[in-house]
Amino acid sequence: MPNLGYIATTLAFVLAIYAAVVAVVGARRRSPELVASARNAALAVTGLVTIAVIIIEYLLITGHYQTKYVYEVSNRAAPIFYRITALWGGQDGSLLFWSWLMSIFATAVLLRKWGPMRILMPYVMVVTQVTLAFFLGLVVFVANPFEQLSFFPADGAGLNPLLRHWGMIIHPPVLYLGFVGFVIPYAFAIAALTTRQTGDLWIRTTRRWSLIAWMFLSLGLLLGAWWAYDVLGWGGYWGWDPVENASLVPWLIATPFLHSVIMQENRGVLKRWNMALIMMTFVMVIWGTFTTRSGVISSVHSFAQSAIGPLFFGFIAIMFTLSFVLYVWRWDDLKSDNELDSFVSREAVFLLNNLLFTGLAFIVWWGSNFPLFSEALMDEKIVVGPPFFEKTTAPLWAAILILMGIAPLVPWRKASLRRIGNSLFWPAMGGMVVMILLYTIGGIKIIGAVLGFGFCVFTLTATLIEYWRGASARHRSHGESYPVALAKLIARNRRRYGGYLIHIAIILIALGVVGSRFYQVEAQRNLAIGERMTIHSDVVGTYEITYHGLRDGPSPDDRFITEALLTVTYNGKPAGELIPTREFFVVQQQPMTIPDKRSTLADDLYVILAGWEGSGETATFKAYINPLVNWLWIGGLVLMLGTLVAAWPDPQERTRRVTHSAKIPGGAVPAK
Ligand code: HEM
Question: Residues 196, 200, 205, CA angle at the centre, nearest 5°?
Answer without folding.
Answer: 105
